[in-house]
Design brief:
The protein has 159 residues and is mainly alpha-helical. It is 51% helix and 12% strand. It has a 3-stranded mixed β-sheet with strand order 1-3-2, with helices on one face. The radius of gyration is 15 Å and the shape is globular.
Length: 159
C-alpha cells in the first residue's frame, strides 16, 4: 500500500541477474513523489542464472516483493542517499549488507514465506550454475535465515 501512486514499470532487459529495481535516472533529481522506477526482468535467452518463467509461483511472489521493497527503500531516501546506496555496490560487503537489508524488509512486509521459497529455489533447487547459486548465497538471506528472522516477528507467529 505504501507504493500506491508510485510510478513503477516492468521492462525486459538483458543483464546479469534475474530481476533488478532502480530509479529512472532522469527522474532521480525530482521530488520523491515525481520519481519513476523500473523493475527489470532478465530477457537474455542465454542467461545462466535463473529465468523468471522457470521460478515457481510462490517464489516469483517473493522476488517481486523483494524488488518492490527496493522501490520502497528508494522512495524514503533523498537523491544523495540513493546515490550512496548505488555506491555501496562498488564493494561486495556493501552490496551484501544492502541486499540482506532488503530481504529483511521483504519479511517485515509479510512476504517471508514467499521470500523463503525464492531463496530455496535460487540457492538450491534451480538449474542455475553453481557460480550463480553461490552468488545468491553470499548476497541474500538463506532459507534458514529467512525462517529464523520470521520466528522473531509476531506477524508470523500465528502461522
Amino acid at each position: 500500500p505504501e507504493l500506491k501512486g508510485t510510478d513503477v514499470s516492468l521492462e525486459l532487459k538483458e543483464f546479469s541477474t534475474t530481476m533488478q529495481a532502480q530509479p529512472q535516472f532522469g527522474t532521480l533529481f525530482r521530488r520523491k513523489s515525481k520519481r519513476k522506477y523500473k523493475i527489470f526482468i532478465n530477457s537474455d535467452p542465454n542467461f545462466e542464472g535463473i529465468k523468471f518463467d522457470d521460478i515457481p509461483f510462490n517464489a516469483q511472489v517473493g522476488i517481486i516483493v523483494h524488488e518492490l521493497c527496493h522501490v520502497l527503500d528508494y522512495e524514503h531516501k533523498s537523491t544523495f542517499r540513493i546515490i550512496g546506496t548505488g555506491l555501496k555496490f562498488l564493494s561486495k560487503r556493501g552490496q551484501e549488507h544492502y541486499e540482506k537489508s532488503i530481504d529483511y524488509l521483504t519479511i517485515l512486509k509479510g512476504a517471508g514465506w514467499q521470500l523463503r521459497d525464492w531463496a530455496q529455489y535460487a540457492m538450491f533447487d534451480s538449474y542455475a550454475t553453481d557460480e550463480y547459486k553461490e552468488f545468491k548465497r553470499r548476497f541474500y538471506l538463506e532459507p534458514s535465515e529467512v525462517e529464523g528472522f520470521m520466528e522473531q516477528i509476531p506477524l508470523y507467529q500465528s502461522e
